[in-house]
Design brief:
With 344 residues, the protein is α+β, with helices and mostly antiparallel strands. It is 28% helix and 26% strand. An 8-stranded mixed β-sheet has the order 1-2-12-3-13-16-14-15, sandwiched between helices. Strands 5-4-9-6-7-8 form a 6-stranded antiparallel β-sheet. Strands 10-11-17 form a 3-stranded antiparallel β-sheet.
Length: 344
């Protein structure tokens, strides 16, 4: 087991800072304080954190999204139960009886209602309820609930930051706070190496609801090329071996029509040369990440994708391996160092 205490500490601080899409304020504040160690930082109109450092070489944009999936309150019924819809890709299969926090005028705990199996209809035994048939119980009648909760308030899933065996951790919102940590760790490596580079860093808002944060920030940056860092699928029972990578075996280098093939192959060559563990992620079209927005921003941006393997995606117990965050950071740092030393 390697000592990744610094990575784990950053990840825990970010995963416990709340920030559902469109309401990323707390998480953005935490991330901006961390990024401020390395460069001047601002928060744009959409809530994305942007850092800028001028130096040698091509202007490279590094992006990871700061928002997390959650729920949004849509109504308060006559009995005080909160009706809700998803905000981002929340998985309704794991919502029944989930513990949540409603971020109203103050934070209040709640539980998603669940029909006892004794009372469930036989035809519903293997079904996940639609969102409109579920509700959150915060323990208050309607008139009291309305004093604390407003329509549009965000809801997050409860779950602790757990250190598993080896290098693995479990927490809500590892998607994509792991990407944010990868970039911060990359900046640490570059600083230690004394690399003079030309960077914009974006911790973007609203990726889970369409990527508008990255689209606006990359348009403003007008970078020459970009690397986005997200998470992707890790091995798990019943998941096809063609659809996942393995935890602890390295960063995933993306290859797709939406990605610049030359950058992908350069990342591969550097990883092999430097002994950095990596895996492939091959896609036949769009990536489903901020790369899709960054690539077509402004005059067009040559874009690459690195992904941290993640198990239990879009749940309150996402699992990653800290070693994969480290390999992602090392590969980015080596690529930036190499590009910064070139005559461009």
């Amino acid at each position: 087991m390697n000592n990744h205490a610094g990575i784990s500490a950053m990840l825990e601080a970010l995963c416990t800072a709340k920030g559902v899409s469109g309401a990323e304020n707390t998480a953005a504040k935490t991330a901006s304080e961390m990024l401020g160690r390395f460069m001047s930082v601002s928060i744009d109109a959409l809530g994305s954190v942007t850092g800028r450092k001028e130096g040698k070489g091509p202007h490279i944009l590094l992006d990871a999204h700061i928002d997390q999936i959650g729920l949004v309150v849509t109504a308060i019924d006559e009995d005080g139960f909160l009706k809700f819809s998803k905000c981002g890709g929340a998985d309704r299969r794991v919502l029944s009886a989930a513990e949540v926090t409603v971020h109203g005028k103050k934070d209040v705990f709640g539980v998603v209602t669940s029909t006892p199996p004794h009372l469930a209809k036989p035809e519903d035994a293997t079904k996940a309820l639609p969102f409109e048939e579920m509700a959150i119980d915060i323990g208050l009648p309607k008139e009291e609930a309305e004093k604390i909760v407003s329509l549009g308030d965000r809801v997050t899933f409860n779950g602790g930051y757990l250190q598993l065996l080896g290098n693995r951790v479990s927490s809500p919102s590892v998607d994509d706070r792991a990407g944010v940590v990868s970039i911060l760790r990359c900046l640490e490596i570059l600083e230690k190496k004394g690399v003079d580079c030309n960077l914009t860093v974006v911790f973007s808002a609203q990726e889970e609801t369409g990527g508008s944060g990255a689209q606006a920030a990359s348009f403003a940056a007008q970078a020459d090329e970009a690397i986005a860092v997200d998470v992707s699928f890790a091995s798990a029972p019943s998941v096809s071996s063609e659809k996942y990578a393995s935890l602890g075996k390295g960063t995933m280098i993306g290859i797709a029509p939406a990605l610049d093939y030359k950058i992908s192959k350069t990342l591969e060559a550097i990883a092999k040369r430097e002994g950095i563990p990596f895996q492939y992620e091959v896609m036949g079209g769009r990536t489903g990440t901020n790369c899709d927005e960054i690539q077509v921003s402004g005059k067009g941006v040559r874009t690459a994708l690195l992904s941290v393997p993640l198990r239990n995606m879009h749940t309150a117990c996402e699992v990653c391996d800290l070693e994969d965050i480290e390999s992602t950071a090392k590969l980015m740092a080596e690529y930036i160092a190499e590009r910064s030393a070139e005559n461009v």
